[in-house]
Amino acid sequence: MIKIALVFAAGIALIAGLSLAFYLTVGVGLPLSNAGDDWAAFGSYLGGVAGALFSFLSVLLIVYTLHQQGQQIDSAQDDAQRLKLLEYVSKADDEIERWLRRRLMSTQGREIEFGDIVWGIVKPGYAEPQEFSAALTRLHKLTCAYCAALALYEDNVDPFFIFGLHRQKADELLDFLENHTSQLGQMAGPSLAICRAHLRGEAHAY
Phi/psi of residue 97, each to 5°? Predict the structure, then answer.
């Protein structure tokens, strides 16, 4: 409404200014004419000059409208990108959570949750070695994907709130994996270093 009022006020000011300019140029010291020809000449002047100016203003308004529409499209695309990246992070997080709930056979013949080992509730030695090694390898792959998703989200959306919440979890997972690199193969160390770089915003170095 404010913009519409400003455009309306500009139109009134334009007409008033043209009328004043006509009066100062032609009508100073002269009485108002009762002749139709004089008023027709004034109308032709006002219509010719004001019409051109109003047409120019219309073009400006069209350009402004197109600019606003372009900004709305860009904003919609940005929102779609944010949602897509957030969905990517959430999917990676969900896959890790599902894997942490996986039950492993213990050396005593009972089942324990893999997450209890990761979060330090149960010592790794209680798990059956082959099952623990397989679960560890899978967690390594999921954590690498998780850190990559977080890096994309930090670079393109938000390096603070949501990223900070996930970063703490990612750091804890990396701490656990780094304590078991001997069971993950030769490439575990470099891949975990890349994950650390992702979380520090240094992924471009790799």
Answer: -60, -40
DSSP secondary structure letter of residue 25: I
At residue 179, the 3 state secondary structure works out as coil
Which residue shows structure tokens 């004043």? Answer: 20
Cβ–Cβ < 8 Å for 199, 147: yes
Per-residue model confidence as pLDDT tens digits over 36-82? 676 676 677 667 766 777 777 777 778 878 888 888 888 888 778 77
Q: What is the pLDDT of residues 6-33, one digit of tens each?
A: 766 776 777 777 667 766 766 666 666 6
Contacts of 42 (CB under 8 A, 6+ apart): 22
DSSP H helices in 101-128: 114-118
Structure tokens at 128: 């059956």
Q: In angstroms, rounded to a whole number, what is the distance separating the alpha carbons of residues 16 and 13? A: 5
Pairwise CA distance, residues 143 & 94, whole Å: 11
By residue count, the chain amounts to 206
What is the CB-side half-sphere exposure of residue 87 using CA atoms within 13 A?
6
